[in-house]
Every structure is written in structure tokens, then in C-alpha cells.
């Protein structure tokens, strides 16, 4: 990548490209904790045995949409305005997984439409992807009241929908944004710092999964956008590796 391209990418992610006059251009994006980009450690996560039977396991897209729209598998159905199914290219190479709808998403029925969504779009653009070229869905299809973290029973009830979406899309890469989504999808309580910079899988098969920061976190902590940029480059490398 030439320096003009790199600058354009970082600007799309709203990463400050400022540097002291006269100082040499960095040869690679500096990060405080080096991410082992070239030697990712493959981690195979067991699929948890206690998941509820999957009512969506054989559904096609139309049936899956119908199941989600009418879902009453947990109490969030009482407080939601809209279910948030997911959006994007159903044959996408990249599948982005977030945590749960917020207020904007609950109102509009589409994932990542608020401020965090704008940043997610910029993050995708930074690696050459438009929003409509990926598929985007959340672990939870309904908004938790006051944006609280998903409860274990809510994630358990909802995961079958995401699992079916993943099976139907058959992406080359799953990019999970944020600790909560990652912990739920990978059935782990490991902190984000241990989940970044490596390739995960659910069970033996399935696409490679790469974890990065949630855009809402990056809005609060812009200094970590550079680490997110490292994650995105790593994810692109994993996707291209096939
Ligand atoms: N945060 C998420 O994790 N998902 C959304 O859809 C919106 C915000």
C-alpha cells in the first residue's frame, strides 16, 4: 500500500494522521501492544453444549426473517419496538457481528445506524469495503432496555438465529466487534485483549473469526483506533488467505 492510500484509509477511519513536521513518516502504524499479525495462533472454541434446540437450524432466509420477526424466546420481545434482523449482502465475504441493537437500531429495525454505525462504516471503508458489501448482524436481535449488556439467557435464546445467518451467508471471514459479542459468540470470558490478534473458530469447521474493538468503544477511546486498524489489516489478511 502506498502512503497516499494508507493516509486515505486512516482518514476514513478518522484516525489522526498528524505528525511532527520533519519527523520521518512511520513505516507501519505504531501500536502500543504489538499484534502478532504474521503468526496468528489458531484457537478452536468448543460450541457450548447447553444451547437451546435451534428452531432456525434449517430455515431459509424468508423463514428465518419470519422467525425473528415473531420471536418470543426471551423477555426482550416485551420491550422492543422492532426486531433487528441484519442487513447487507447475503453472499458477502465478510460478516460483521455486533452486540445488540441500541435505541436508533430498535427504532429503525436495522443494525449499526447510529453514531457507532457511522464509525463502523468508516472502519469498513478503511479496508476497502462498503457497508452493502458485507453482512451485518448482532448477537441479540432485540434491544436490551437502557442498552444494558445482554443476559446469558437472552444470548442463548437468540444465538441460533445468528448461527443460521452465518451458515446461510458462508462468509470467508467473521469480524466480531466488541468484547460482549466476542464472548458470546466464542463462549468465553476472556478479555478483549486476549481475543484480538488471533484467529478463532467455532467448532472444527466454520469461517475464521477475528475480534476487534466495538465502534462505540472507539468513539469513547479514539486512541485505540490505531489498534483497531491493526485488527482490520489482520482480518483482511486472514480473509485473503482463505
Ligand atoms: N451496537 C451494536 O453492537 N449493534 C448495533 O446494531 C448498534 C450498536
Layout of helices and strands, plus pairs?
Elements: H1 3-12, E1 43-45, H2 61-69, E2 87-88, E3 94-98, H3 103-108, H4 115-126, E4 135-138, H5 152-169, E5 173-177, H6 179-186, H7 192-195, E6 200-202, E7 209-212, H8 215-220, H9 225-241
Parallel strand pairs: 1-6, 3-4, 3-5, 5-7
Antiparallel strand pairs: 2-4
The structure holds uracil.
Features:
single chain, 242 residues, alpha/beta, Uracil-DNA Glycosylase, subunit E, 5-stranded mixed β-sheet, two-stranded parallel ribbon, 9 helices, 37% helix, 11% strand, binds uracil
Description:
The protein is an alpha/beta fold and 242 residues long. The protein has a single domain, classed as Uracil-DNA glycosylase-like domain (Uracil-DNA Glycosylase, subunit E, 3-Layer(aba) Sandwich), CATH 3.40.470.10. Helices cover 37% and strands 11% of the residues. The chain is built from 9 helices and 7 strands; from the N terminus they run αβαββααβαβααββαα. The strands form 2 sheets. It has a 5-stranded mixed beta sheet with strand order 2-4-3-5-7, with helices on both faces. The two termini are 20 Å apart. The chain binds uracil (URA). The site of uracil (URA) has 11 residues, from loops. Uracil (URA) binds at residues 98-102, 105, 111-112, 116, 138, 216.
As an assembly, this protein is single chain
> What is the alpha-carbon Rg in Å?
18 Å
Helix/strand structural class? alpha/beta
Beta-strand share of residues: 5-15%
Can you identify the CATH class?
A: Alpha Beta
Tell me the series of helices and strands, N- to C-terminal.
Answer: HEHEEHHEHEHHEEHH
Averaged pLDDT: 87
Name every ligand kind in the structure. uracil
What is the helix tally? 9
CATH topology: Uracil-DNA Glycosylase, subunit E
Q: What name goes with the CATH superfamily?
A: Uracil-DNA glycosylase-like domain
Would you count the extended β strands for me?
A: 7
Ends apart, CA distance between termini: 20 Å
- Helix content estimate: 25-40%
**Which ranges are low-confidence, i.e. pLDDT below 50, for 5 or more consecutive residues?**
17-42
Strand numbers in spatial order across the main sheet: 2-4-3-5-7
What best-fitting shape do the alpha-carbon axes yield?
globular
Amino acid at each position: 500500500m502506498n502512503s497516499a492510500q494508507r493516509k486515505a484509509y486512516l482518514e476514513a477511519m478518522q484516525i489522526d494522521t498528524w505528525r511532527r513536521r520533519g519527523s520521518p513518516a512511520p513505516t507501519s502504524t505504531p501500536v502500543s501492544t504489538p499484534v502478532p499479525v504474521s503468526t496468528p495462533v489458531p484457537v478452536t472454541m468448543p460450541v457450548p453444549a447447553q444451547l437451546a434446540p435451534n428452531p432456525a437450524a434449517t430455515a431459509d432466509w424468508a423463514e428465518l426473517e419470519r422467525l425473528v420477526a415473531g420471536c418470543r424466546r426471551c423477555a426482550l420481545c416485551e420491550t422492543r419496538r422492532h426486531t433487528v434482523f441484519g442487513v447487507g449482502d447475503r453472499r458477502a465475504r465478510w460478516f460483521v457481528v455486533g452486540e445488540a441493537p441500541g435505541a436508533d437500531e430498535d427504532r429503525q429495525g436495522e443494525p449499526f445506524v447510529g453514531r457507532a454505525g457511522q464509525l463502523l462504516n468508516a472502519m469498513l471503508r478503511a479496508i476497502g469495503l462498503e457497508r452493502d458489501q458485507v453482512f451485518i448482524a448482532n448477537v441479540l436481535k432485540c434491544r436490551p432496555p437502557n442498552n444494558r449488556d445482554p443476559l446469558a439467557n437472552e444470548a442463548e435464546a437468540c444465538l441460533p438465529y445468528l448461527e443460521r445467518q452465518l451458515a446461510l451467508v458462508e462468509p470467508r471471514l467473521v469480524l466480531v466487534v466488541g468484547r460482549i459479542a466476542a464472548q458470546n459468540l466464542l463462549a468465553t470470558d476472556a478479555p478483549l485483549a486476549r481475543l484480538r490478534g488471533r484467529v478463532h473458530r467455532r467448532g472444527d469447521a466454520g469461517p475464521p473469526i477475528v475480534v476487534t474493538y466495538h465502534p462505540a468503544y472507539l468513539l469513547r477511546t479514539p486512541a485505540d483506533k490505531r489498534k483497531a486498524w491493526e485488527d482490520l489489516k489482520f482480518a483482511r489478511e486472514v480473509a485473503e488467505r482463505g
